[in-house]
Amino acid sequence: MTDDSKLKATGQTERGAERLLFLDTTLRDGEQSPGCTMHHEEKLRMAHQLAALGVDILEAGFPIASAGDFESVRAIAREVRGPRITGLARAKREDIETAARAVEAAASNRIHTFLSSSDIHLEHQMRISRQQALDQAGEAVRLSRSFVEDVEFSPMDATRTDPEFLLQMVMVAIEAGATTINIPDTVGYSLPEEYAAIFRMLKQRVPDSERITFSTHCHDDLGMAVANSLAGVQAGARQVECTINGIGERAGNAALEEIAAALMVRRDRFPLTSGIVMKQLYPTSQLLSEIVTFSCSPNKAVVGANAFAHESGIHQHGVLANPLTYEIMTPESVGVPASNIVLGKHSGRRALEHRLKDLGITLTRSDLDVLYRRFTELADRKKLIYEQDLLELLQTQQIALTES
Ligand code: KIV
Ligand code: ZN
Predict the structure, then answer these.
(1) Helices (runs of H) and strands (runs of E) counted in the chain
(2) Domain residue spans in the chain?
(3) Which of 195, 291, 314, 344 is the most buried (most CB within 10 A)?
(4) Which of 96, 156, 180 is the pocket-test mutation for ligand 1 (most atoms within 8 Å of CB)?
(5) Ligand 2 centroid to 217 CA: how many Å?
(6) Cα(97)–Cα(99) distance, integer angstroms
């Protein structure tokens, strides 16, 4: 580890400004969702793009899960430079040894080990006592530390865990050598205020808690993964775990692009730095959509096809006059090619004129009035009006065109 990366691991930059670390788990938690299985080459392509995006830590997979997963994590560790490479491991010897082998070739690496902490998991799934869980967590972290300097520990289902027991397990992991403590909202159950309270409690009650990087890991079962992550950050978390397009188990994980955009737009509430290259958000989202079997919904925040599309006449008028009237960030700032004025039945004259201008066409006032009337009639029948429709309307109305 270089001096700088030691500083980074505690959430500090050289200049002393606090940095929020991004751990991307698209290739691990994201890949665990239906339709998101990726082949070896696809994972490598995605990993290179995540490096270009500037993520700090790249969770490249779950090496014990399959020979294919192991090979992909190993190849990413060998080839991809920039992010620290981590592999997931249950709190078991075989998992940890396999993860250690998978990440050993990375320029900087981490082992992320986890064990359930909630009673419901311990009783019904693990069938072990709380004391056994504490012993197993400590042993897993110690074993991980025998391979790498940087160990992250996750008490799984932390948000449904008795807070006193959660604190106990976290302290055992820290004493055994973990420097990052992740608080997974495994089943997406938490509300922002509750989630924030866990971080406040840990920061207050863990001795020398400033040495530890606390991390968010939120699932979206109640649609609150991003809100919970941001609440965690406001309560002192300095690492966020997230995925591109929010893919992940069930309803998904917190979407990286939404967290990054919230930090950028609401810098007033998040005076933090990050390594994310904002203009790479859209290309990264596009690449993932190309690789997995579905793209994100058109109304998806930040990277959806409609995220910067304006159809209503009032909004179009405002955006054409000054984009800030209805856009809180520019499309270009997150790598989206250009603002979209979409023509439909809610569009006004100005939007029509603007689109014609894009096509190199300028009309006289009266011709524009005629065309606009025809356009609204057509828009009542058709959901979206394309350039071809406009050209056909112009032709049928035999409007004399003036090249602009
Ligand atoms: O959601 C979860 O609990 C996880 C852990 C393995 C970190 O993904
Ligand atoms: Zn998860």
Answers:
(1) 15, 12
(2) 17-292, 309-403
(3) 195
(4) 156
(5) 6
(6) 6
How far apart are the C-alpha atoms of 165 and 360, rounded to whole Å? 68
Please check the confidence at residue 6 and state whether its pLDDT lies above 60: no
Q: Tens digits of per-residue pLDDT, 351-384?
A: 999 889 888 899 999 999 999 999 999 999 988 8
Q: Would you give the DSSP letter of residue 399? A: P
**CB contact at 8 A, 254 and 229:** yes
Q: What band does 150 get if pLDDT is binned at 50, 70 and 90?
A: very high
Residue 386 in this model has a pLDDT that exceeds 50: yes
pLDDT of residue 283: 97
Assessment of whether the complete model's pTM goes beyond 0.70: yes
Residue 112 beta carbon below 6 angstroms from any ligand 1 atom: no
Q: Which residues pair with residue 57 across a beta bridge?
A: 23, 84
Does 248 contact ligand 1 (Cβ within 6 A)? no
End-to-end CA distance of the chain: 60
CATH number of 17-292: 3.20.20.70
Tell me how many degrees the CA angle 74-184-111 measures, rounded to the nearest 5: 25
Q: What gap in Å lies between CA 165 and CA 190, rounded to an integer?
A: 17
